[in-house]
Amino acid sequence: EAQVTQNPRYLITVTGKKLTVTCSQNMNHEYMSWYRQDPGLGLRQIYYSMNVEVTDKGDVPEGYKVSRKEKRNFPLILESPSPNQTSLYFCASSVTYTGELFFGEGSRLTVL
Amino acid sequence: KNEVEQSPQNLTAQEGEFITINCSYSVGISALHWLQQHPGGGIVSLFMLSSGKKKHGRLIATINIQEKHSSLHITASHPRDSAVYICARNTGNQFYFGTGTSLTVIP
User: Fold this and answer.
1) For chain A, which has fewer Cβ within 10 Å, the N-terminal or C-terminal residue?
2) Over its length of 112 residues, how does chain A's per-residue pLDDT go in tens digits?
3) Using CA atoms, how far apart are residues A20 and A102, in angstroms rounded to an integer?
4) Is the peptide bond before A75 cis (omega within 30 degrees of 0)?
5) Interface list for chain A against chain B, based on CB atoms closer than 8 Å
6) b/e code A53-80 from CB counts within 10 Å (16+ = b)
7) Under DSSP, is residue A84 helix (H, G, I), strand (E, B) or coil?
């Protein structure tokens, strides 16, 4: 089954404790991206990757890092999480940057 | 910077009604996407448009590139259509989203 898998789905952590949210797709998609969704602000793009070893900042990259060492994986790293990073996070992939987006199920992160 | 505007923000309809959700943007696009998000959070892509019109079942999406405007229509609405509908513009390599239209269809 074609899918985008995110883990963990739910996480409560404390300020400053590094964490990684994993994202994996099995569709051989070139384009992968991360978004956060906040009430009243909607979805905003954090980072995106056009292909392996090619990543770039989206609209709200501050406080986040990403890497793309393999085509299928695109982890989101919060080196020192802060409460303003409490949000619902989505990973998505598509064949190319102009293609239909396939979303993961979302990861709800709470930073205390 | 975002400049993707959706209207209305909230919409309540009776089952069977014809529904229209509008999306406008102010810069050039590679494509315009319509997404659906059900309670519980999962997001599904409904349409991707760069011109003209697309239809899938009871859903129709149109786009007018010159006017920078797109509409999503739902014919013969049903309670299972209750969801948040999100418009997104794809410009270059990036995506920018509207804040969504929350639709409730009452039986």
Assistant:
1) N
2) 889 999 999 999 999 999 999 999 999 999 999 999 999 999 999 999 999 999 999 999 999 999 999 999 999 999 999 999 999 999 999 998 888 999 999 999 999 9
3) 21
4) no
5) 31, 33, 35, 40-45, 48, 50, 56, 58-59, 88, 90, 92, 97-103, 105-106, 108
6) eebeebbbbeebebebeebbebbbebee
7) helix
